[in-house]
TrEMBL record:
Name under which the protein is recorded: Transporter
Source organism (scientific name): Vreelandella glaciei
Entry coiled-coil feature ranges: none
Pfam families linked: SNF
Cellular location(s): Membrane
Length: 481
């Protein structure tokens, strides 16, 4: 990779990583999980897991990217050669690229819904609408494959345009405008919620420390959320790490990414739930909160149409900053491996992901039931693709931790971390033992049953194989050159 492919500003990696981490999940999933699972108690478990699992793997993934200065797949090929380890470790790169590709395919469809709602809000179509009208409107959108395909196409094309323009002109310039704008919009929506909503109820829903409400399931969700929110194991962080200047502190950057990501989720939670409680509505989970409950809250409030439109622009911005990070790992690989131009690589990646996304589009209507996916796996095509990513990402994250913890030499890691011996020892202990065990535990507990035993068994074998094989792969004698 040429020297030109390094971020021109030291802070760009932080913006890029935060952009990748801050997505649709921050805006609806995290606040909802927090409120349902004991508020402050959930946040405490989440923070501990971010420190013990999320940050060590985040540092490991950035380190592998910066060490190789290549795309995840080619980078892992390079690292296995230079470290004399088994080529089986290249699986890390392939798992990351596969996860990024699969997530982009459905993420683009769901993000496309925000285009629809931005239009509805800004044209004032929902002013004064009742709950039934808004709920029927959402159902009508899901029942219209043509409309969903149009939005999916617009969204993925916009993301492709940014990545296709290159690392500096496209991704870097885009993020430096987009991320500060997102933070400003989020604060505007929060201020609106304070004035027109019920900020007290939102704060008590999110921050009341109630350990009794935190079940084992809640613990697992806190641990799972801390892993998924940082975009670990899907190639994006490794791809962005390859462009990170050598003199930027890995440790400080990783902590900053985790703190900003969590702060955005908290502020989003306060903003969203102050509006929801202010309008006397229920805290529904998932898409329902974003696309039914919130539009209803905006419909009943002064200047709601305008602020609602601005809010959905925020949702779109957060989604685009995540989707460009999903295109990059595969596009960078195609450029390096096949020596094609960046626009050509991005076009190939995006057309393939767009076509795969059509499976998600029809999962909500034409193929809502009775397909081969339902008969084989008991779920729709969209749910099956999502399930695959929920397997690939943790396995990828686990392998990243093991490779960085066991294959990289102490001197390499010390040079990259550039910090105290105490922090090095703590990081290495966390990345070698604590993070892999925690990821394996969450993975095996939360993977849903398919045909009773198929997926959990497969997952268990993958995990055991990864642990056992890592020891054998790493014992391979280092080749002298």
């Amino acid at each position: 990779m040429s020297g030109q492919n390094v971020w021109t500003h030291k802070g760009t990696f932080l913006l890029a990583a935060v952009g990748s981490a801050v997505g649709l999940g921050n805006l609806w999933r995290f606040p909802y999980l927090t409120g349902e699972n004991g508020g402050g108690a959930f946040i405490l478990i989440y923070a501990l897991t971010i420190f013990a699992v999320g940050i060590p793997i985040l540092i490991a993934e950035i380190m592998l990217g910066r060490n190789s200065r290549q795309s995840p797949i080619m980078g892992m090929r390079h690292l296995t050669k230079t470290h004399g380890t088994s080529r089986a470790w290249e699986t890390i790169g392939w798992l990351g690229a596969a996860s990024a590709f699969l997530i982009l395919s459905f993420y683009s469809v769901i993000a496309g819904w925000a285009i629809h709602y931005t239009g509805l809000m800004l044209t004032g179509s929902l002013v004064g609408a009742d709950a039934q009208t808004i709920s029927d409107g959402f159902d009508a959108l899901l029942a219209a494959p043509g409309l969903m395909t149009l939005y999916h196409t617009i969204f993925i094309a916009a993301s492709a345009l940014i990545v296709g323009m290159g690392i500096h002109k496209g991704i870097e310039s885009g993020l430096r405008i987009m991320m500060p704008a997102l933070f400003v919009i989020l604060l505007v929506v929060l201020a609106y919620g304070v004035v027109n909503g019920d900020i007290g109820a939102a704060a008590s829903f999110l921050f009341t420390f109630n350990i009794a409400d935190l079940s084992l399931e809640g613990w697992l969700q806190a641990m799972g959320q801390s892993f998924f929110t940082l975009s670990l194991g899907m190639g994006a962080i490794m791809a962005y790490g390859a462009y990170m200047p050598s003199d930027v502190s890995l440790t400080r950057t990783a902590f900053a990414v985790a703190i900003v990501d969590t702060a955005v989720a908290m502020v989003a939670g306060l903003a969203i739930f102050s509006l929801v409680f202010g309008a006397g509505l229920e805290t529904g989970q998932g898409p329902g909160l974003m696309f039914v409950t919130l539009p209803l809250a905006f419909a009943e409030m002064p200047f709601g149409a305008l602020v609602g439109g601005v809010f959905f622009i925020l949702v779109l911005g957060a989604a685009i900053s995540s989707s460009i990070s999903l295109i990059e790992p595969v596009a960078a690989f195609l450029v390096e491996r096949f020596d094609i131009t960046r626009p050509q690589a991005v076009t190939i990646m995006v057309i393939a992901a767009w076509a795969m996304g059509l499976l998600t589009v029809v999962s909500f209507n034409i193929w809502a039931e009775g397909t081969i996916f339902h008969s084989l796996f008991g779920r729709s095509a969209f749910e099956f693709i999502e399930l695959l990513t929920n397997i690939f990402m943790p396995v990828g994250g686990l392998l990243i931790a093991l490779f960085a913890g066991w294959a990289l030499t102490q001197s390499e890691v010390m040079k990259e971390l550039g910090s105290s011996v105490t922090w090095f020892k703590l990081w290495r202990f966390l990345v070698r033992f604590v993070a892999p065990a925690a990821v394996a535990f969450v993975f095996l507990r939360t993977i849903p049953q398919v045909d009773g035993y198929l997926i959990p068994t497969l997952g268990a074998l993958l995990m055991i194989g990864a642990f056992a094989a890592s020891q054998r792969w790493l014992k391979k004698p280092r080749q002298t050159t």
